[in-house]
Amino acid sequence: MFDPQHVITAADELRRVVPPPRPAQETKVLSALDVHCRRWIQRSPFVVVSSIDSAGRMDLSPKGDPPGFVQILDDETLVIPDRPGNRRLDTLHNLLERPQVGLMFVVPGRGEVLRVSGTGQIVTDHDLLATMAVAERPPILALVVTIGEVMFHCGKSVIRSKLWSPSEWPDIEGLASYAECLGDQTTSDETVAEMEARFGSWHDGNELY
């Protein structure tokens, strides 16, 4: 537990603990993509999408595909294909209630990330979806994001975590597989072995698109 007397509840209290940022950090927020942001998105194979529903419940959804899978329509508009997944549609349901979204673009080997915030729309434009086909399969939906703010975030957290240093990775021996977690946490009509076989097929490229 922690002492409730030491909970920060006001901005001035927070600033007494953390000094103000450097000028570059104050002024780095852009309202549209520049050349550096464009190049980063074009190299990124992985983005995390954050959303929130009308009750304030938040969701984080990872999206991945070959580098550059997030399309840049213009300096203020991005398109993210929605590939087959768990079919929960948490992000999309949230967008129907509150359109605000946050994005975090990751480039393997780089410590920094690119952060984008804006508003999202769910689209089924067949011509647009056709331009995002992989293995000749277009997505059935896409998320169009109108950018409000965009900024680079420094690499300190990735450096501290040694995320891209395999020699520093933790031992994963004893961690349950995804199928084992589902077997213990859910009611499923599949056995763990059947789920393991199905999930294993993804690594061979099956059922990904």
Indicate the overall shape: globular
Name given to the CATH architecture of the largest domain: Roll
Element order, helices and strands? HHHEEEEHEEHEHHH
The percent of residues in helical segments reads 25-40%
Q: Based on DSSP secondary structure assignment, what is the total number of beta strands?
A: 7
Mean pLDDT: 94
CATH superfamily of the largest domain: Electron Transport, Fmn-binding Protein, Chain A
The CATH C-level class name of the largest domain: Mainly Beta
What distance separates the N and C termini? Answer: 46 Å
The structure class reads: alpha+beta
The number of helical runs is 8
Largest sheet: 7 strands, antiparallel
Percent strand equals 25-35%
Catalogue the unreliable spans.
Answer: none
CATH topology of the largest domain: Pnp Oxidase, Chain A
Over all CA atoms, what is the radius of gyration? 20 Å
Overall domain count: 2
| Lateral strand order in the biggest sheet | 2-1-5-6-7-4-3
Task: Give the secondary structure arrangement, pairings included.
Elements: H1 11-17, H2 23-27, H3 35-43, E1 46-52, E2 58-64, E3 71-74, E4 77-82, H4 90-97, E5 100-106, E6 113-123, H5 126-130, E7 141-153, H6 156-161, H7 178-185, H8 192-202
